[in-house]
Amino acid sequence: MLNHSRQGVLSVKVVSHFCFLMEQIPSCDHPIPGWVDADVDYQGGTSSIVHTSTEVIGKHCILELYDCDKNKLNDEAFVRTSITIASKVAGAKLLNLITHRFDPQGVTGLALLAESHISIHTWPENGYAAVDVFTCGNHTVPDRACDVLRTEFGAQSHELKSFSREAPTGLRGQLRNPFESATSFF
Against a cut of 0.70, is the pTM above it? Predict the structure, then answer.
């Protein structure tokens, strides 16, 4: 359940034992990944940034959850709620969420984030879930989403692999202006 207060603070109340209070992080619909000057008003449309050779554009986490609560893994509504909470705790902007429950068991969920995505695939019969979290920009922390999902599904053990995603070689050193590029499509 999300509650917005008048002071600009977002309170996230979670069904289980997660309870967070955090400031809202303004996020435009495109995080403009990899652009190094965080103080520039990208929505104003006047800035251009030059990529550097060691530029990190995001972080990708691959999470394996073992010995999870089988009922939670098979509960589509629980999966939806958990993904929603995980995206908020990571500081990401949730654009769309789609889930599907399989017969006789299992749920797949995919969250489209302004910063990229969160996906989960569950195998209740094995107490297992495969999770993928990728976020761009410097305002998100995908590890936090992984922590939420690990705890929410009651994983008795887990394996987390994460790595930084760098700007593609072809973009390094180039002057980029998203507003110039966007107008060329119309």
Answer: no
